Amino acid sequence: MKNQQEEFENQALSSYREYLKQEFAQADLTGQKKAFIHECFARESWLASLGELGIPAMAFALLCLTFAHFYGDFSVAGSVHPMLGAVPQADVRSAAEREPVSQPASAEPRSTVAAEKQNKELPAIPAVDVRRVVSHAGPVVVYQKSFQDHPITVIWVFPRG
Amino acid sequence: MERLLRTIFWGSLLGGMLWIRSSGVHAQHTERVLVTVIEASNAKTDFDVDNDEYRDQLFKLFSYTGYSQLDKTVADLERSKRQLVKLPNDYELLLTLQGEEADRVLVQAVIRKGNSQFVDTILAILRPGVVFLGGPPSEDGTIIIVLEIGF
What we know:
Chain A is an alpha+beta fold. Chain A is built from six helices and three strands. Chains A and B meet through α4, β1, β2 and β3 of A and α1, α2, β5, β6 and β7 of B.
């Protein structure tokens, strides 16, 4: 009786060993288990992990990047502190047109004579573009002259009186 | 796939931030202007100006017999912030960086005395650029202001 019981236990143990050997030997089974775990217990998507506010925030960031790309220059041309009384860019042109540079007076220094002579010396693209010149003190002369490849711009006001 | 999407997202976000930073959206741009104040006079015959290169320029441009330097200062212009430079005879020079246009610097230069505006000009200057502003009367002659940008 005792021998039978020992024999039965040995058989059971050997069966269990065989089962474990088969279990480890089956590579497919491991893969299937992993697939099962991935399917049933997969982590939530990273998009979902962003939460309710995350996706709109991401969309907003992408929108900002798009705007930044197409409208990258955020500078406002001609914007100056209102106290300075600067005019917008469009008005700069019109102001220059409205107030052309006055002709110098006859008693002016020889500078304007030099200015007439050096008109031929002016480069095609002036180094200094005078966008606006306004004076309430008197007539204004603007001219340029090149000195050793350095064009110099002169703005001269002849005060009245 | 998920990892790729995540990499693309964070990569583009980082790249975008770097691009915005490098494009100078938030950069504080300054422009250095050298201001030299010279008094031109027919009462003197000497030339007393630090920068000797001005000698030829001044004598060719103007007809005064003497030139003396009264002041020399550096103004670091910040956008839309005006810099005040005191001039002789209660005149003031106000310089304002208005921005950039292509490769030019937009600078507003105003000379005033009290509430009276002597001259108001907006200059688009290609670096390096030199501008002579002249005409305000001084005790012995006339004030000439030399503005040098981009040197």
